[in-house]
Design brief:
alpha+beta; Cytidine Deaminase, domain 2; 6 strands; binds tetrahydrodeoxyuridine; hydrolase
Length: 162
């Protein structure tokens, strides 16, 4: 038996004021994305904003369905939207935030494993790490560079590409 360890690196900022201007603006774009959330079943709105190379920002929000598993997370809505519109776009960074009237969100909401797997694929496609910002409205921001720092044991199998 051999004990092995991963080291996961990320930064924590007390609030938007501690971030650089571009990151702070992207977090506010994620807040803007909350407006289009369709979440009548959970009441939990999630907003995502992608910063593309060249300056464009793409928004996405969670879209729920009465058949619950048919809904989609904000992160994947944003990623698949740009993936289908401009497959050559390069995502430099993405910001994610959440809001609900049902309770107080006290810390940044980090994304689900399914979204992380999709983020990893986009990163691998573009051969450039994606910076991820998790923003708790009026509070802490977590900044992570590279999806491997979020999902070290992601599913990878290069031989599946024919
Ligand atoms: N949700 C996201 O949009 N992103 C995540 O990473 C996790 C969860 C959404 C799905 C659903 O509409 C609501 O949050 C509650 O799970």
């Amino acid at each position: 038996m051999e004990e092995r360890n991963f080291t996961i690196s990320y930064q924590s900022f007390k609030g938007l004021e501690e971030l650089n201007e571009k990151d702070s603006a992207l977090c506010l774009k994620a807040v803007e994305a909350l407006k289009t959330s369709y979440s009548p079943y959970s009441g939990f709105k999630v907003g995502a904003a992608l910063q593309l190379k060249g300056g464009r920002v793409v928004l996405g929000s969670n879209q729920e369905n009465v058949a619950y598993p048919s809904g989609l997370c904000a992160e994947r809505v944003a990623l698949f939207s740009i993936g289908s519109e401009d497959p050559n776009a390069v995502i430099e960074s993405m910001a994610i935030t959440a809001k609900t009237d049902n309770f107080v969100i006290e810390k940044p909401v980090t994304c689900c494993g399914g979204c992380l797997q999709v983020m990893a694929e986009f990163e691998q496609r573009q051969k450039q790490e994606i910076v991820v910002l998790f923003y708790c409205i009026n509070g802490e921001v977590l900044k992570v560079k590279g999806i491997k720092n979020l999902i070290p044991f992601l599913f990878e199998e290069s031989r599946l590409v024919v």
